[in-house]
């Protein structure tokens, strides 16, 4: 996704108070996110559960992720259990 479009999505996520609205902002996007953009988006979801919901919403909206970049995405999660769930979402 180009920088301007990503900034628009990011702005919508910043404005949203509830997780549901943040997820809708992701779901309505018609482009594909890079791994760096996914990491930036996950920072706006405060806990593991909302982050995993965001990963589910991003699952089919990401360009192919290089294995080295997967580590950066997984580092957004604190607990191993959450990292495993995120890895499963990335793998499918």
Automatic annotation (TrEMBL):
It holds the Pfam family DUF4476. Residues 30-91 form the DUF4476 domain. InterPro entries: DUF4476, PROSER1. Transmembrane segments: none annotated. This is Proline and serine-rich protein 1-like. It comes from Leptonychotes weddellii.
